[in-house]
Fold this protein.
Amino acid sequence: MCIYHKNTVNINVANFIRNIPATALYISTLTIGEITKGIAMLPNKSTKKQQLQLWLNTEFLKFFHGRILNIDQDIATAWGQLSATVKRPLPAIDSLIAATAYRNNLHLVTRNVKDFADLPISIINPFVARFAK
């Protein structure tokens, strides 16, 4: 979804999005927070900020309606277990998103594979993965 708001579209990401049924895509509430933070950091009266805010509130949230995963006790427990498996500090939001994927038996789709490489979760980097058209 976010790729369509960039100036250039990565063909691998575009193919990935086209080939995955919408019903198979989920996001964390933390992802909404990350997007909101990015929008909030833009200059107040910028056209881009207004466009992205509209996109978030209409298209993005509508697209993921019913497929937004909250952080709950089970995910917090999974986060604690995952955090204990690595010998380095994990970024809080990234590791909670990883715990959400782990707890729900989902693939984690991210470009940032290095922060998740030593966790026992399935990671897909759509920027390098090849998907049929």
User: Anything to note?
Assistant: The mean pLDDT is 90.
